[in-house]
Amino acid sequence: MNVKIAGIIAEYNPLHRGHIYHIARTRALSGCDYVVCALGGAFTQRGEAAVFDKYARVKMALMAGADAVIELPQVYALRPAQLFARGGVGVMNKIGADVLSFGCETDDAELLLKARFAVNNPDRAALKQALARGESYPKALSSAAAGEDAALKALLSAPNLLLALEYINEIERASSPIEICPVRREGGYHDEASLLSATGVRARLLKGDLSGATEGLPSEIAQTYAGEASKGLPDMNRLDALMLNALRNMDVSLVSSPDDSEGLINRVKKAALSSGTFEEALFKVKCKRYTLSRVRRLMMDAVLRLPQAPSEVPYVRLLGARRASEPLLRELKARSGGALTSGTRLIRDDPVFLAECRATDLWGLMSANPEYRAAGREFTAGTLYV
């Protein structure tokens, strides 16, 4: 039997109508038999705490049409675009996915390849000048790569496009046979008025507008939203003093974050020593050159004591699956050479998994829910079947 598997690398923070559309469109465009998601955990690529519990997001992904969900470890998920892509594509390579689908501002594969070439071969003098003006690296790179090409400039300025290009880079770097399946993104990526935007949905949740946040969602997903909201959303302020103390007392020589350069981690520690809150320290470090996401990522990286991300994903952990997808699990087991695991016995001493545990436990302490505040949930949660 010739089975075709499509992969999606996701955060689902939280899952919304745009994600449901993406999963359905992936099936239609790729002609795949199954869709498998690699899902990031407690903290997102922007360094923020996920709005819902990791396992609640696994459940919603399965309800939205995914057939299985694999863990994207925090050492990749809480890192810059290049490493986020390396982890996600690495998971897909491990399970033998045939296609990688991602949301993008264009579904023109040729235009994407043109953009990728431009980004990989920017005008070095223009890049240096933009950085000297204090522009953040992503913004400087986009402008230096586009040059006078207005269409390319518009595309490269679109949110999250650089991540799509990193997926393509990583597929080539790994000499992977995975094909790409770009799905044109609908709705503003950061538009607070859009229910096709995670930013828009989070804004409604933070305002207590549950009915607005769940508008148009299938009832079972809306019910999961309601259940999570009733437990209380995570609040970083609950751990403000703990995280500030961790930054004040960290050994900067042990921080292995790729976001650290030009002594930025020393600047973080200095800010922590002179600030009364984590957020105050964050904004003391943030500047035109260093984006808020980069600084927040670096600070969370240091608090969680994340190890370096291995060049190859060290394990393939099944977080959840649809009960009707048992043939898929057999296929994943075979394609991964038996590496697929649904338990923790074989990985319990792996530094990457232990970092995952620290992240989940820290996220839990941001919640008011006693169930989430208990330590060791990665050992007890088990694989979720829907």
Keywords:
386 residues, alpha/beta, Rossmann fold, 8-stranded mixed sheet, 20 helices, 8 strands, 50% helix, globular
Account of the 3D structure:
The two termini are 25 Å apart. The chain is globular and about 55 Å long. The longest helix has 15 residues, at 81-95. Helix 5 packs across helix 9 (161-173), helix 7 (137-146) packs antiparallel against helix 8 (150-156) and helix 13 (240-248) crosses helix 14 (264-273). The chain contains 20 helices and eight strands. Strands 1, 2, 3, 4, 5, 6, 7 and 8 form an eight-stranded mixed β-sheet that branches. Helix 17 (326-335) links the parallel strand 6 (316-321) and strand 7. It has three domains: 5-105 and 163-233 and 309-385, HUPs (Rossmann fold); 109-157, no CATH class; 236-304, no CATH class. By secondary structure, it is α/β, with parallel strands linked by helices.
Report the β-strand fraction as a percent range. 5-15%
Low-pLDDT runs of 5+ residues are: none
- Secondary-structure element order, N to C: EHEHEHHEHHHHHEHHHHHHHEHEHHHE
Q: Count the domains.
A: 3
Q: What best-fitting shape do the alpha-carbon axes yield? A: globular
Q: Using the coordinates above, name the CATH class of the largest domain.
A: Alpha Beta
The major sheet is characterized as:
8 strands, mixed
Number of strands: 8
CATH architecture of the largest domain: 3-Layer(aba) Sandwich
What Rg is obtained from the alpha carbons, in whole angstroms? 20 Å
CATH superfamily of the largest domain: HUPs
The percent of residues in helical segments reads 40-55%
- Report the average pLDDT across residues: 93
